[in-house]
Amino acid sequence: MDHVKIFHNPQCGTSRNTLALIRNAGIEPEVVLYLQTPPTRDELVTLVRDAGLSARQVMRDKGELYEELKLAEPHWTDDQLLDLMVQRPALINRPIVVTPRGTRLCRPSELVLDILPQPQQGPFSKEDGEVVIDAQGRRVK
Protein backbone atom coordinates (compact mmCIF):
# COMPACT_ATOMS: atom_id res chain seq x y z
CA MET A 1 0.00 0.00 0.00
CA ASP A 2 1.17 3.52 -0.79
CA HIS A 3 2.27 5.66 2.15
CA VAL A 4 0.09 8.66 2.94
CA LYS A 5 0.86 11.24 5.63
CA ILE A 6 -1.45 13.93 6.98
CA PHE A 7 -0.37 16.86 9.11
CA HIS A 8 -3.54 16.94 11.17
CA ASN A 9 -5.27 19.06 13.77
CA PRO A 10 -8.20 17.11 15.24
CA GLN A 11 -9.81 20.39 16.37
CA CYS A 12 -10.23 21.48 12.72
CA GLY A 13 -13.29 20.32 10.76
CA THR A 14 -11.47 20.57 7.42
CA SER A 15 -8.67 18.42 8.79
CA ARG A 16 -11.15 15.85 10.17
CA ASN A 17 -12.99 15.71 6.83
CA THR A 18 -9.73 15.24 4.95
CA LEU A 19 -8.66 12.41 7.23
CA ALA A 20 -12.06 10.78 6.77
CA LEU A 21 -11.75 11.02 2.96
CA ILE A 22 -8.34 9.33 3.13
CA ARG A 23 -9.82 6.54 5.21
CA ASN A 24 -12.81 6.32 2.84
CA ALA A 25 -10.28 5.29 0.19
CA GLY A 26 -9.24 2.37 2.40
CA ILE A 27 -6.00 4.04 3.45
CA GLU A 28 -4.81 4.31 7.04
CA PRO A 29 -2.41 7.26 6.88
CA GLU A 30 0.42 8.28 9.11
CA VAL A 31 -1.21 10.98 11.22
CA VAL A 32 1.12 13.72 12.42
CA LEU A 33 -0.43 15.85 15.13
CA TYR A 34 1.69 18.78 14.07
CA LEU A 35 0.75 21.02 17.00
CA GLN A 36 2.36 18.44 19.30
CA THR A 37 5.05 17.25 16.88
CA PRO A 38 5.76 20.13 14.51
CA PRO A 39 7.75 19.58 11.34
CA THR A 40 11.37 20.64 11.36
CA ARG A 41 12.27 23.67 9.32
CA ASP A 42 13.69 21.42 6.57
CA GLU A 43 10.50 19.33 6.56
CA LEU A 44 8.36 22.46 6.36
CA VAL A 45 10.46 23.85 3.51
CA THR A 46 9.99 20.55 1.65
CA LEU A 47 6.23 20.52 2.27
CA VAL A 48 5.85 24.10 1.03
CA ARG A 49 8.00 23.45 -2.04
CA ASP A 50 6.34 20.14 -2.91
CA ALA A 51 2.89 21.71 -2.59
CA GLY A 52 3.98 24.43 -5.04
CA LEU A 53 3.09 27.16 -2.58
CA SER A 54 4.83 30.03 -0.86
CA ALA A 55 5.37 30.16 2.87
CA ARG A 56 2.67 32.82 3.10
CA GLN A 57 0.18 30.55 1.29
CA VAL A 58 0.80 27.78 3.83
CA MET A 59 0.44 30.13 6.79
CA ARG A 60 -2.85 30.21 8.67
CA ASP A 61 -4.07 33.79 8.33
CA LYS A 62 -6.78 33.61 10.98
CA GLY A 63 -6.56 33.87 14.71
CA GLU A 64 -5.10 36.03 17.41
CA LEU A 65 -1.49 34.99 16.86
CA TYR A 66 -1.55 36.07 13.19
CA GLU A 67 -3.07 39.42 14.16
CA GLU A 68 -0.83 39.90 17.19
CA LEU A 69 2.34 39.37 15.15
CA LYS A 70 1.00 41.58 12.31
CA LEU A 71 1.78 38.85 9.79
CA ALA A 72 -0.40 40.41 7.10
CA GLU A 73 2.23 43.11 6.65
CA PRO A 74 4.18 42.59 3.42
CA HIS A 75 7.67 43.07 4.87
CA TRP A 76 7.86 39.46 6.14
CA THR A 77 10.12 37.25 4.01
CA ASP A 78 9.42 33.58 3.31
CA ASP A 79 12.37 32.66 5.53
CA GLN A 80 10.96 34.69 8.42
CA LEU A 81 7.50 33.19 7.95
CA LEU A 82 8.94 29.66 7.87
CA ASP A 83 10.88 30.33 11.08
CA LEU A 84 7.72 31.61 12.76
CA MET A 85 5.70 28.56 11.66
CA VAL A 86 8.35 26.21 13.06
CA GLN A 87 8.42 28.13 16.36
CA ARG A 88 4.62 28.44 16.50
CA PRO A 89 3.07 25.51 14.62
CA ALA A 90 -0.44 26.94 15.16
CA LEU A 91 0.51 29.27 12.28
CA ILE A 92 0.71 26.33 9.84
CA ASN A 93 -2.46 25.96 7.84
CA ARG A 94 -3.93 22.49 7.73
CA PRO A 95 -4.26 19.85 6.71
CA ILE A 96 -1.24 19.16 4.56
CA VAL A 97 -1.29 15.72 2.94
CA VAL A 98 1.64 13.91 1.34
CA THR A 99 1.06 10.94 -0.99
CA PRO A 100 3.06 9.31 -3.79
CA ARG A 101 0.96 11.46 -6.15
CA GLY A 102 1.87 14.78 -4.56
CA THR A 103 1.67 17.15 -1.62
CA ARG A 104 -1.30 19.39 -1.08
CA LEU A 105 -2.74 21.84 1.40
CA CYS A 106 -6.25 20.39 1.46
CA ARG A 107 -8.48 23.41 1.85
CA PRO A 108 -11.17 22.52 0.98
CA SER A 109 -10.87 18.93 2.15
CA GLU A 110 -11.91 17.39 -1.17
CA LEU A 111 -8.63 18.59 -2.73
CA VAL A 112 -7.15 15.44 -1.19
CA LEU A 113 -9.04 13.40 -3.81
CA ASP A 114 -6.65 14.65 -6.51
CA ILE A 115 -3.64 13.06 -4.84
CA LEU A 116 -4.97 9.88 -3.25
CA PRO A 117 -3.44 6.72 -4.75
CA GLN A 118 -6.72 4.80 -4.38
CA PRO A 119 -10.35 5.65 -5.25
CA GLN A 120 -13.08 6.27 -2.74
CA GLN A 121 -14.81 3.09 -1.62
CA GLY A 122 -18.24 4.44 -0.82
CA PRO A 123 -20.33 7.52 -0.14
CA PHE A 124 -18.98 10.38 1.91
CA SER A 125 -20.48 13.56 3.34
CA LYS A 126 -18.61 16.25 5.21
CA GLU A 127 -19.43 16.93 8.85
CA ASP A 128 -21.75 19.74 7.74
CA GLY A 129 -23.73 17.30 5.58
CA GLU A 130 -22.33 18.37 2.20
CA VAL A 131 -22.18 15.30 -0.06
CA VAL A 132 -18.74 14.90 -1.65
CA ILE A 133 -18.78 11.24 -2.79
CA ASP A 134 -21.88 9.43 -4.06
CA ALA A 135 -22.94 5.84 -3.33
CA GLN A 136 -20.79 4.57 -6.21
CA GLY A 137 -17.66 6.24 -4.84
CA ARG A 138 -17.70 9.03 -7.43
CA ARG A 139 -16.90 12.66 -6.70
CA VAL A 140 -20.07 14.77 -6.72
CA LYS A 141 -18.38 18.10 -7.57
Task: Write a brief structural summary.
The protein has a single domain, classed as Glutaredoxin (3-Layer(aba) Sandwich). 30% of the residues lie in helices and 15% in strands. A 4-stranded mixed beta sheet has the order 2-1-3-4. The chain has a two-stranded antiparallel ribbon with strand order 5-6.
Provide structural commentary.
By secondary structure, this protein is α+β, with helices and mostly antiparallel strands. A hairpin with a 2-residue loop joins strand 3 (96-99) and strand 4. The radius of gyration is 16 Å and the shape is elongated. The protein has helices at residues 13-24, 41-51, 55-58, 64-68, 78-87; strands at 5-8, 30-33, 96-99, 102-105, 124-125, 131-133. The mean pLDDT is 96. It has 5 helices and 6 strands, in the order βαβααααββββ. The chain has a single domain (5-133), classed as Glutaredoxin (3-Layer(aba) Sandwich), CATH 3.40.30. The strands form 2 sheets. The chain has a 4-stranded mixed β-sheet with strand order 2-1-3-4. Helices cover 30% and strands 15% of the residues.
Please name the defining characteristics of this protein.
alpha+beta; two-stranded antiparallel sheet; 141 residues; Glutaredoxin; 5 helices; four-stranded mixed sheet; elongated
Spell out the blueprint of helices and strands.
Blueprint: E1 5-8, H1 13-24, E2 30-33, H2 41-51, H3 55-58, H4 64-68, H5 78-87, E3 96-99, E4 102-105, E5 124-125, E6 131-133
Parallel strand pairs: 1-2
Antiparallel strand pairs: 1-3, 3-4, 5-6
